[in-house]
Design brief:
about 240 residues
């Protein structure tokens, strides 16, 4: 079982992913599909250390939006608040009733969260997302899939970093970040082990779409393969 102590250690090195190109591409895909507009109120459900909002502010600094982050790990939220001044974050358990009124959010983002929650509770969580989303609002949800390989992400990262920066600059950067990069991939291997033999379970093909439909969402997209083929992304509307 991956306990609070694990997630504390995990979030201490999690932000190294912000320099990993495949992870950047995943966040960019989520932002693109969200079609965020001025005035949008956005729920980042399972926000971790705030990388979605950080990337959004970098990519679309002109937008006036409100992002509310929910996370059940206080250590992740403390890092979030240090990174983004005035961050609107709340300590909350997604398996419980969300602390918002009906039809509150324009967009809901959930990235690599649902797979860490017991299979029998996933539909309940999506039904809560449906409740707090405005009619016509959009949800973008992504999760790593069965057969997930951190090694494939690692290899793709190396190829893309070398293509972008060249060998000399890549190895200079890599040696500086070697320890946190190795830690994050080690922790990813523990998560995979938990999904293979413990309480977690990666997403089956089509699972997100089926559960979104059962939760009442409509206009559900087909599975979009993202994160170097290691995750599935779906978009749906209320």
């Amino acid at each position: 079982m991956l306990d609070n102590n694990f997630w504390k250690k995990y979030f201490q090195v999690y932000d190294v992913l912000n320099i990993v190109i495949p992870y950047q591409e995943l966040l960019d895909a989520i932002i693109k599909e969200a079609e965020i507009k001025d005035g949008d109120v956005i729920l980042d459900a399972g926000c971790g250390t705030g990388n979605f909002e950080l990337r959004l502010k970098k990519d679309k600094p002109e937008l006036k939006i409100k992002v509310i982050g929910l996370e059940n790990c206080v250590d992740g939220l403390e890092i979030y608040k240090k990174k983004i001044k005035g961050a609107n974050v709340r300590l909350a358990d997604l398996t419980e009733k969300l602390p918002f009124e009906n039809n509150y959010f324009d967009k809901i983002i959930s990235n690599n969260v649902l797979f860490t929650i017991a299979h029998e509770k996933r539909l309940d969580i999506l039904e809560e997302f449906h409740r707090v989303l405005k009619p016509g609002g959009k949800i973008i949800i992504s999760n790593v899939i069965c057969g997930f390989s951190a090694f494939k992400v690692f290899v793709d990262m190396i190829k893309k970093e070398i293509d972008k920066f060249g060998y000399l600059q890549f190895f200079s950067l890599f040696f500086k970040m070697f320890v946190p990069v190795m830690k994050i991939f080690y922790y990813s291997s523990l998560i995979k082990k938990e999904c293979d033999f413990g309480d977690f379970r990666f997403m089956d093909e089509g699972e997100q779409a089926r559960k979104l439909e059962k939760a009442g969402f409509k206009n559900i997209s087909e599975d979009k393969i993202v994160y170097v083929g290691q995750a599935i992304l779906n978009i749906a509307e209320k």
